[in-house]
Prior knowledge:
By secondary structure, the protein is α+β, with helices and mostly antiparallel strands. Helix content is 29%, strand content 33%. It is globular.
Amino acid sequence: MGYEVIWQEKVLQDLEAIDKKDAARIVERVKTYLVQNPAGLGTPLKGIFEDLFRYRYGMYRVIYAVDMVEKKIIVLHVKHRKEAYR
């Protein structure tokens, strides 16, 4: 069984700011693909973003945390790659 996905409120604003087709594809990809192995499919971040992961989907980055004990993915941001780490 996969991980449960928790979307932070800020992510809804992020998704509204991008193209509707891209937003729908990102949500679908997270729900069907990323939930299978979030730590293995994402790239660990460094520095002040340590303990977070990023998942690349086209020009967008999904920034998330993984709770291995409770099997949850907490999605923090979905941003264009130019804005993702600001």
